[in-house]
Amino acid sequence: MSQYDVIIIGAGPGGYVSAIRCAQLGLKTAVVEGRETLGGTCLNVGCIPSKALLHASHMLHEAEHNFASMGLKGKTPSVDWKQMKAYKDDVIGQNTGGIEFLFKKNKIDWIKGWATIPAAGKVQVDDTTYDTKNIVIASGSVPSSLPGIEVDEKIVVSSTGALELPKVPKKMVVIGAGVIGLELGSVYARLGSDVTVVEYMDAVCPGMDKDVQRSFKRILEKQGLKFIMGAAVQGVDASKTKAKVKYALKKSPDTEEVLDADVVLVATGRKPFTDGLGLDALGIAMTDRGQVATDAHWRTNLAGVYAIGDAIKGPMLAHKAEDEGMAVAEVIAGKHGHVNYGVIPGVVYTAPEVATVGASEDALKAEGRKLKVGKFMFMGNARAKAVHQAEGGFVKLITDAETDRILGAAIIGPAAGDMIHEICVAMEFGASAQDIALTCHAHPTYSEAVREAALACGDGPIHS
Ligand code: NAI
Fold first, then answer.
1. Exposed, middle or buried by CB within 10 Å (0-12, 13-18, 19+), for 401?
2. What is the pLDDT of residues 224-242, one digit of tens each?
3. Minimum CA distance residue for ligand 1 atom 5
4. Is 178 a pocket residue for ligand 1 (Cβ < 6 Å)?
């Protein structure tokens, strides 16, 4: 008889959420996790610690740039980096401890160690083999570097090392203007580092709405980040204390340029982490990008083995993994798990935040869709002006020209990562822009900008 109904491999947001839902559905559940604490990359070395540092450094930025004009005078705080890291570690501890509590509450066993799958229905950890009816691979992802670059997590760091630097570097070079590069680049720029971001593409956050890309870059430049765009990094020479980043501009590929740095952050993407699981020997099908291949119900080609999160296709986002984790639990319990991949928000937690959902204006135009686009600048939003957050930001709502149905949205501005969910809910309900426009929004809130963008899809916004 099987010891477990489900064994989940990995306790990141995909795995731990899946385990809790499995337990709630009456399945006997265990999670294998080799880290010392639960929560995976997100809680230990990703989303959560970076948000703590983003918050602390944003406070410093406010003190340096906006306090005096609000009549708050006096000594500007200086950075106690050791204490800031201790604060970040405390935030991590509270969150990972919280998951441990939830596991106990839901009677989920934590099998400590690294798992191998010797056969369907079996999970091995060290010398013990556990029998289980179902296995969910939720093993996540790891940073991927570039050829010619060796990440030592001291001078040349991934996001993991960037959260643990012994001191705030004087000069930092960030390779990649994606989410990680811009979030952590912002942190160090606010803490006083001279930060240069080198990006291969011609715009930040490739794939994002072009309007947002332009405003976002301008705002970050104003905050002190420098950008070298259209530049391919070819290698990094690192000593014990310094590094040289070698790159070539796409327009002159034969000319090697060099940047000096005290620390280099390599933020050029992540790749699925499936090492040691034994998937090859099991004959589990993989995609050509090294992801575990799954069908619409997160089943691999081996009966009883499922996979979710960063280890499979789709955006590498904690909340996408969480949704898949809940849905796969429902499938295993004989219910109908579902994820609407068309309504998964993406958020960059800089200041201002950037949030998007659904299709972008550019992608829909390329498809030849007839659109109505409503845009409202935060300069017309009273609340944003009151807190120095109005400059450069906007809400953009993209709707079908004929039906007025919302197809996508992009927000750059204060609390964008929270406000986007009004639009997510609207999209889930198949709402039109008029539905939002006719909904009373409290004044004065940032959310009024969403309503104004919806009004801009109809007879026009009021405050612009
Ligand atoms: P990314 O894929 O977002 O960005 C990588 C950037 O590096 C791209 O802009 C790419 O053009 C550039 N690049 C690649 N090779 C280069 C080269 N040789 N020279 C110059 N530039 C080069 O990857 P990132 O930022 O490392 O994030 C990894 C994953 O983690 C992403 O899927 C991201 O969505 C996720 N993540 C999400 C967060 C959030 O939702 N707030 C936070 C942190 C990570």
1. exposed
2. 999 999 999 999 999 999 9
3. 268
4. yes
Regarding the beta carbon of 149 and ligand 1, being less than 6 Å apart is answered no
Measured in Å, residue 421 CA sits from the centre of ligand 1 at 23
Long-range contacts: 434-439, Cβ < 8 Å, 24+? Answer: 434/404, 434/458, 436/397, 436/406
pLDDT tens, residue by residue, 124-169? 999 999 999 999 999 999 999 899 899 999 999 999 999 999 999 9
Ligand 1 contact via 454 beta carbon (within 6 Å): no
For ligand 1, mutation pick of 144, 234, 268, 291 (most atoms within 8 Å of CB): 268
The H-or-E segment that residue 453 falls in is: helix 448-456
- Give 169 Cα–ligand 1 centroid separation in angstroms: 21
Q: Which two tokens stand for residue 134?
A: 């179902």
Collapsing DSSP to helix, strand or coil, 392 comes out as coil
Classify the C-alpha dihedral 32-38-43-46 as positive or negative: negative
Q: Is 232 exposed, middle or buried (0-12, 13-18, 19+ CB in 10 A)?
A: middle
Q: Classify 264 as helix, strand or coil.
A: strand
CA–CA separation, 306 and 297 (whole Å): 8
Q: Is 441 a catalytic residue?
A: no
Q: Which residue has the tokens 């009151």?
A: 386
Q: Give Cβ neighbours of residue 340 (< 8 Å, ≥ 6 apart).
A: 428
How many Cβ atoms sit within 10 Å of the Cβ of residue 86?
Answer: 11
